[in-house]
Task: inverse folding
């Protein structure tokens, strides 16, 4: 029985690497066992360079190349979920166009699909472009989120992953948050899961689209999405402040007993500063959770598709909160 593989590729200002990525990926896909057909689904996330023109050229040359063009930049996470929404494959591989995710891993992933695995996490063993600070920060982040969350994440798991049609259906229908961490959802949905280690290449061209500020924001959103422990910080800080209060009370009484009325100005200032700082931190955390709730209540689209290439006019047979039209999962359906 023939199977169908979808390779979903997020693209944002990658004109320098697209043709090389296509050539390497196509080579791997044409070398797959005869039971696997394929499509390469590029999601153009509002690129400002010549990426769209190159993608249209590739789509004109190869009917296996499909293109989704966003109305503006919605972000990497939105591009990946859009690709999953529109992918038709029995297996779906998500990867980036900068060639840091090696296309030569595709046959190995397909082999795991053939073995019956439904969720495949690609875990970096080495990243040639990440500096010392990013590597340390990444390790610290995974230790922190695994301590705070009930879900245990694979350290160094990346946005390079693969899911079966059944696992993708769960992401299409049930995981439609506006603030999301897709690689975390992939690791938390269950199914038959395995891990494939890989060594990340150096970027073929260009620079990373994730600044330290973006990575910090992503880390904060991840913690808020997968843990309610920060909301409980008020209880824990209240206990700490109460303990400090008891200690200061004992110190004040003992000082009064030894030398009369103690001078408490410095102590009062330090305690008030500490308590107000703790209070503002707690209010800020509550504000972050409220901001996420506000984004969900507004219920705006996760992404807006402006145009497509080499894709049939799909009937709107599944409606979800993102406003996306999810295509039939049999490639022969129209």
Result:
């Amino acid at each position: 029985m023939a199977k169908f593989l979808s390779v979903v590729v997020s693209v944002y200002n990658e004109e320098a690497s697209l043709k090389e990525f296509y050539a390497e990926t196509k080579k791997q896909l044409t070398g797959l066992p005869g039971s696997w057909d394929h499509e390469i689904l590029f999601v153009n996330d509002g690129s400002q360079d010549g990426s769209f023109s190159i993608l249209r050229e590739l789509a004109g040359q190869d009917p296996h190349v499909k293109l989704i063009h966003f109305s503006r930049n919605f972000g990497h996470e939105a591009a990946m979920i859009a690709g999953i929404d529109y992918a038709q494959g029995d297996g779906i591989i998500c990867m980036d166009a900068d060639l840091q995710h090696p296309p030569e891993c595709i046959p190995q992933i397909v082999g795991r699909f053939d073995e019956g695995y439904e969720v495949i996490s690609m875990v970096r063993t080495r990243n040639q472009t990440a500096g010392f600070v990013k590597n340390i920060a990444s390790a610290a982040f995974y230790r922190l989120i695994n301590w705070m969350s009930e879900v245990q994440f694979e350290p160094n798991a990346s946005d390079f992953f693969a899911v079966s049609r059944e696992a993708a259906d769960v992401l299409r229908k049930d995981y439609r948050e506006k603030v999301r961490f897709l690689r975390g959802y992939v690791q938390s949905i269950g199914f038959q899961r395995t891990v494939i280690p890989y060594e990340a290449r150096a970027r073929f061209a260009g620079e990373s689209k994730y600044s330290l500020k973006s990575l910090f924001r992503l880390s904060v959103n991840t913690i808020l999405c997968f843990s309610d422990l920060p909301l409980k910080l008020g209880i824990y800080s209240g206990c700490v402040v109460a303990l400090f209060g008891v200690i200061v009370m004992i110190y004040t009484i003992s000082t009064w007993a030894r030398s009369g009325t103690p001078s408490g100005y410095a102590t009062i200032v330090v305690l008030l500063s500490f308590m107000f700082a703790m209070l503002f931190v707690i209010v800020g955390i509550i504000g972050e959770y409220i901001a996420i709730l506000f984004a969900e209540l507004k219920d705006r689209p996760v992404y807006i598709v402006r145009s497509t290439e080499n894709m049939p006019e799909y009937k709107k047979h599944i409606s979800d909160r993102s406003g996306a039209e999810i295509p039939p999962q049999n490639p022969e359906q129209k």
Notes: The radius of gyration is 25 Å. The chain has two domains: 3-227+301-309, 229-297. The longest strand covers residues 3-11. Residues 265-298 form the longest helix (34 residues).
